[in-house]
Amino acid sequence: MPQNFLFPQRDQPLLMPVDMREWLPEDDLVYVVLDAVAALDLGGFRRRYRADGHGRAAFDPEMMVALLLYGYCQGERSSRVIEKRCVRDVGYRVITGGLAPDHATIARFRARHEGALGGLFSQVLRLLAAEGMVALGLLSLDGTKLAGNAAQKANRTLPQIDKLLAEAAAADAAEDARYGDAAGAPTPRTLARRAERRERLAAARDRLAAEDTARRDAQRAKQQAWDAAAAARKPRSGHRPGDEPRANRAGTEPRANITDPDVRVMRNQKGYVAGYNGQIVVTAGQVIVGAMLSQHPVDRTLLHPLLDQCRDQLAAAGVDPKLRTVLADAGYVSEETFARAEQDQLRLLAPLAKDPARPGTRRGARVKHLDQYPATARAIRRIRHPRGQEDYKLRACTVEPVFGQLKTCHKMAVMSRRGHAACESEWLLACTAHNLRKLHRHRAEG
């Protein structure tokens, strides 16, 4: 008996028109993204285009938004990779309807509408709230260090940047003498890139100069306070502050990155990176309800700015921003943080030491020092209560897995864009994609 196989008929013309909706199952992520984008208000995108219809036709903003969101859901942020997927991947082809925008169009759309793309976070959060997925009874927050699109070795001191700017000015003068400044002459690509590099150098220099001025002003204020206390014969601590501000802990001169002047030196588990501090607030169901991207390398002063941002994003989503219980780690602990939480009638659960339940955890000097303050003492009693201990166990299984999903599934360990505004838009877009995947799973299980 001969073998029985089904052979592909690649040379057989299709006898009926193709319906793209039949290429994927009805519960595929593609259709969740398309349905979500169809329910969003995209007026902020459409207003950037001409209303008279003149000029070359542009791709529909609804299609481009869905394409970017689906790409971020799949962990694809490269415009060149997305361009290839629009030809080879069925999901991308369903979204584009057979069109194939090139990588330059995708990149320009993302850069042109970075503010509106960041605003999609609250609109998608509104869709999740309508599905009953946003429960604010118990929230967890944390931060993670994200490497920027700049190398750590690109950090330079203020004298080094001044030297580079002087060299750039000399090179510009030589090129002006060579090419001239004829009207209408196209700018060579090398000159355009050097102009962009000169702008980044100037931004890095201005940042270091401003920080140096702020440090010197603060040092003069300390001197004036010490002199005033001495004139009034009040008790003073130590000697009179010197004229020069105190250097950082490493004893190194302040530096700025000449590739992306907005990045800051961040310390993570593997060492130091030039990047940003990504902050999120998540529910017990791992839905992100608040997100922001900070340039501050430590979390101690970021808890309430993050919660304020979370309240604004919830209000924009039409959700009552009433927060009750918030779980945080020891990095956010301070007397001011606990006192502000009590003023806001917020039940904040945060330990004074990292991993307090781990055997052999040592109590540092900072923990003993904070015990003397009233708001911190009340916070200690609150987290030592059996109910506080039971609630705090949920932090590790809510916010920590979300960071794992963002960095692994969405590949958000390294930024693909430069500048704080662009990177914050990218961070919010990744958080929006995470929530869309949660919506997809919720509908599949429901």
Question: What can you see in these coordinates?
Answer:
- The protein has helices at 29-38, 43-46, 61-73, 79-88, 90-96, 103-112, 114-130, 158-179, 189-231, 303-316, 335-343, 365-370, 374-384, 386-392, 399-408, 420-445; strands at 138-147, 155-157, 255-257, 264-268, 271-282, 288-294, 325-327, 347-349.
- β5 and β6 (288-294) form a beta hairpin.
- The protein is α/β, with parallel strands linked by helices and 446 residues long.
- It starts with 28 loop residues before the first helix and ends with a helix.
- The chain is built from 16 helices and eight strands.
- The model has no long low-confidence stretch (mean pLDDT 85).
Estimated share of beta-strand residues? 5-15%
Model regions low in confidence, pLDDT < 50 over at least 5 residues: none
Content-based structural category: alpha/beta
Largest sheet: 6 strands, mixed
Total of DSSP H or I helical runs spanning 4+ residues: 16
Count of beta strands: 8
Overall average pLDDT: 85
The share of residues in helices is 40-55%
Distance between the termini: 48 Å
Which descriptor suits the 3D outline?
globular
- Radius of gyration (CA) equals 27 Å
Along the chain, the helix and strand elements come as HHHHHHHEEHHEEEEHEHEHHHHH
Please outline the helices and strands.
Layout: H1 29-38, H2 43-46, H3 61-73, H4 79-88, H5 90-96, H6 103-112, H7 114-130, E1 138-147, E2 155-157, H8 158-179, H9 189-231, E3 255-257, E4 264-268, E5 271-282, E6 288-294, H10 303-316, E7 325-327, H11 335-343, E8 347-349, H12 365-370, H13 374-384, H14 386-392, H15 399-408, H16 420-445
Parallel strand pairs: 1-7, 7-8
Antiparallel strand pairs: 1-5, 2-3, 4-5, 5-6
Helix pairs in contact: 1-3, 1-16, 3-16, 4-5, 4-6, 7-10, 7-16, 8-9, 11-13
